[in-house]
Amino acid sequence: MYLCPSIHLSYCRSPSSYNSIYEIPRAQHEDPVPQEQEIDVQEEYLSRLNSNVADGQASFLAVHARDACTTERFYMALTGYWLAIEGVRYAQICRYPLQSVQNEAWDAVDTLWDDGRTMQEIFNMLEVFDFVYGYLIRQIQCSRIDTFTQWVEDQDYLFDTETMETNWQYFIHDMRVMFSPADVIELLILTSQWKREPSQQLEWSPMEKVRYLKVRGFFDPSFSGQVEVVDVHLYPDTCYSFRYLEEKFESTMQRQLGGLEGAFQNMWTDYRMTKWKTDARGTALFWGVSNDVIMDRIKRLSWEQFKCLKPTFAAE
Fold this sequence. Notes:
It is a single chain. By secondary structure, the chain is mainly alpha-helical. The chain has a two-stranded parallel sheet. It has helices at residues 5-13, 41-46, 55-65, 68-93, 99-113, 119-135, 164-178, 181-196, 206-215, 242-257, 263-279, 284-287, 291-301, 303-307, and strands at 96-98, 227-229. The chain has a domain at 5-19 and 37-223 and 233-240. It is 56% helix and 2% strand. It is built from 14 helices and 2 strands, in the order ααααβαααααβααααα.
């Protein structure tokens, strides 16, 4: 799908997935996220040979489609995130004899999110996340603001004190953490079928939709008696989001900047918010470059953020 010309073009033109209630509230951003044109991803993929995308775009993607390295980078990045969210899911549903054992389990989960990846590998993960969990997931029926409540009906999921849009943003966040890539593909296929055959009443009832989410541990996965004996009074942080991986990326780059304390966070925020869409989206997987090249690229494109900061050198 990523290399299907019409889907790839639609993805490159789509709103950024970086703007969310957990990072930059949409209402406070200078450029509100535009409405996204709906696309039947399954239909586009099946009819990709008849795509009306410009020949240059199709030829460019065809070259990379024949490059085994592109496929390898995509699936390495995808399975890296998949493994991390599966680790979260299993840690949530297990029963533990001791609190210390639960803490060890969550330490192991934390390791899955921070396993010494290179900058290029993290860039690949960000790009694949944006495509699968930013773009594809928005094509699923349950991600629409006018239908998501059908998937949480009678589950005490919505916050009465929040607006419908804010509740929807919380729901999108949870989808990104709880859905596996296989879930995303399955729901894309179902969404396509439901739209193309409305007269056959194929669409699930709200009860069936809720059951689908329950099986995936969507609703409050913790349970009474999960830890049998509290032998230590230290408790794990069980809240994860993809922002956590971005923070790891920032800290990795910050170490390489040495004395420029705090500089990279400003540059990275500027790059991710304003430069990523035109520089890295749709192309990062094709780069295959070194860490130094990526660092120089970010410095060059976000130089205004960089040059206004005074170097702070560590004491000799």
